[in-house]
Amino acid sequence: MMWPRLFTRQFQTTAFRLAEESSSKLSREQIRKKELRKMAQRRLQAKTPASEHPLYMPVSQALRYLRAIEVGQPASQQTITLSTIIVSERGVPPLTGNVSFSKPLKEVKVAVFTNDEAQTALMKDTYKVHLVGGTDLLNQIKEGKVNIDFDKAFATPDVVPQLAQLGRILGPRGLLPTVKKGTVAENLESLVQENMNSVPFRQRGNSISLGVAKTYFSDREVLENLLATEKAFKEAIASQQTKKPSILGQTTLTSTHGPGIVIDFA
């Protein structure tokens, strides 16, 4: 008489397991649909005109408001920051790139490594780079005789093998010139011109935040930097290898002590 009970028990266990698996599959499908609806809403919000937002202001008006808030603060220390929401599908790599400002926020100190005398003279006389030199400069940095107080570094191919000895010193700081990073070239003039006033950006989470001006910049200077930022962001999107590239969403301007003000951007 044990067999009917055993069979009944096994049947109930199997039925429960199948029901649980069916419920689990249904839950996963519901989650997927929920995520799709949420993404559709985010894309719709990204395409909504900024002027419809209650905190919207034209850029010129936003700048007057932010400058008023910073009155009494050291002008050189008050930064205007742009923050943009990025709408991306799952698995899409974060946006990265560089913005070349027509009016940089600070002086960018550049180091150039080369044994080419002609390029050494050009970097010193025309571009007034912070540091320039070849083997001697590399040895001085290795021995700790030269401060690593520069923001960017470029090199010609002839010194690349010697740069390897500075990997542990410059590498962690992101200052080691490499072919892969595009900071090594036969002709450094165009490379330095393009990167002298450029600032890197990287998407963190679902947004990008970047300092674009100081409060004492003129409206024209701020607008030119904003246009350069928009161009750089769109170039980063265009370079994404995906069927559904990212979309630029709501963008705000804020100052060091000010609130976020929604502006037209993309």
Describe this structure in words.
- One of its GO terms (biological process) is translation.
- This is Ribosomal protein.
- Keywords: Ribonucleoprotein, Ribosomal protein.
- Pfam families: Ribosomal_L1.
- Belongs to the universal ribosomal protein uL1 family.
- The protein has helices at residues 2-47, 59-69, 117-125, 135-142, 160-163, 167-170, 188-195, 219-238; strands spanning 79-87, 96-100, 110-113, 131-133, 152-155, 198-202, 207-214, 247-254, 261-263.
- The strands form three sheets. The protein has a four-stranded antiparallel sheet with strand order 7-1-8-9. A three-stranded parallel sheet has the order 4-3-5, with helices on both faces.
- The protein folds into two domains: 47-104 and 199-263, 2-Layer Sandwich (Ribulose 1,5 Bisphosphate Carboxylase/Oxygenase), CATH 3.30.190.20; 110-196, Ribosomal protein L1/L10, domain II (Rossmann fold).
- It has eight helices and nine strands.
- The protein has 266 residues and is an alpha/beta fold.
Helix content: 40-55%
What amount of the residues lies in strands?
15-25%
What's the domain count? 2
Write the CATH homologous superfamily of the largest domain.
Ribosomal protein L1/L10, rRNA-binding domain
H/E series? HHEEEHEHEHHHEEHEE
Low-confidence stretches: none
Shape field: globular
CATH architecture of the largest domain: 2-Layer Sandwich
Q: What is the CATH domain class of the largest domain?
A: Alpha Beta
**Could you tell me how far the N terminus lies from the C terminus, measured between alpha carbons in angstroms?**
77 Å
Number of helices: 8
pLDDT average, as an integer? 86
Radius of gyration: 27 Å
CATH topology heading of the largest domain: Ribulose 1,5 Bisphosphate Carboxylase/Oxygenase
Total beta strands: 9
Strand order of the largest sheet: 7-1-8-9
Give the helix/strand class: alpha/beta
Summarize the main sheet. 4 strands, antiparallel
Family: Belongs to the universal ribosomal protein uL1 family.
InterPro entries: Ribosomal_uL1, Ribosomal_uL1-like, Ribosomal_uL1/biogenesis, Ribosomal_uL1_3-a/b-sand, Ribosomal_uL1_CS
Protein name: Ribosomal protein
Keywords: Ribonucleoprotein, Ribosomal protein
